[in-house]
Amino acid sequence: MRQWIIGIDAGGSKCSASLFDQKGNEMAQVQTGSSNLFTHFTGAMQSIEQGITGLLSHSLALENKIKPSDCIVSIGAAGAGIESVQARFTAWQHSFYRTFLFTDLETACYGANEGEDCAFVVLGTGSCVAEYRHKEMQQYGGQGFLLGDTASGAWLGQKAIRWYLHALDLSVGRISNEASLFESMFDVLGADTNQVITEWGKASPKQFASLTPRILANAESSKQVAAWLQEGSVYLQEILTQKAFDLPVFLGGGIAFIYKERLQKALNKTMFEAKQNARYGAFCLAKAQYS
After folding, report:
1. Are the C-beta atoms of residues 140 and 132 closer than 8 Å to each other?
2. At a CB cut-off of 8 Å and minimum separation 6, what does 211 contact?
3. Left (φ > 0), alpha (ψ -120 to 50) or beta: where does 141 sit?
4. Burial readout 118-139 (b: 16 or more C-beta within 10 A, e: otherwise)
5. What is this structure's pTM?
6. Cα–Cα distance, 228 to 57 (Å, whole number)
7. For residue 119, what pLDDT is reported?
8. Residue 34 has pLDDT above 70, yes or no
């Protein structure tokens, strides 16, 4: 097989790419922009290609310059499970030796328990749950921001803006028991309802998720934030209880930490951090497919 495999984790907030030798040693790693193939295929592919270009540039520091034809490119991408996305990806013009496209959940799940059976919960800009048994994966949730992504960063951001607009309508935000949350939103959004609607009425999931740090800063003091987190936790508990209760559960994503203790207490079981990242999962899946 070719000497080099490029493993890519292409998500809604960022694209991370790693260059691996055939033994799985990571030789270089770069990060570029948003790369959801379903919501913005062209922009996502630009981020992916920028990442690959960056890796090949880093390869100049190795003994031999790596050519695209020396590389197998393995991509785990948000939106990759959609047939229209797969069709467009197949038409991608490139000079690599071989390419593989998996969902970002497949690569993350494979990396989490190094290919062994597990459940994997992704909690970042979006959200979903994977049940991985006997080399077969079943996905729950992950329908995208408009139809799902419950418990995610984007979901929390949208919840907060809806709540904030309602508070502005009632003119009670500053004097209610949620003054701290109101002030956190006011600092970002201002008090002009029309401006908020103009700026956020067509915002991307990444933009909504950008509000998450301010929201979570109020997690201990705000009953409203606590209610949102409880709603998200119950959603995840139901899936894990009914679909994957007998499996070890791994958590991943930028806001997984905020749900970890809640889920452990509700399910009475330990939640683990991924053993390997999704880029390594992409490497392993490509190697298995090509072999």
Report:
1. no
2. 156, 157, 160, 161, 185, 188
3. left
4. bbbbbbbbbbbbbbbeeeebeb
5. 0.78
6. 44
7. 93
8. yes
> What is the H or E stretch that residue 257 is in?
helix 256-267
pLDDT in tens, 47-56: 999 999 988 8
Residue 65 carries which DSSP code? P
Instruction: Note whether 262 and 229 are within 8 A (CB).
Output: yes
Average pLDDT of the residues in 200-205: 91
Rg of the chain, C-alpha, whole Å: 20
Per-residue pLDDT reduced to its tens digit, 97-151: 999 999 888 898 899 998 889 999 989 888 989 998 888 888 898 787 888 899 9
The closest alpha carbon to 150, from 228, 72, 50, belongs to: 228
Residues across the chain: 291
- H or E stretch covering 211: none
User: With contact defined as beta carbons under 8 Å apart, do 32 and 50 qualify?
Assistant: yes
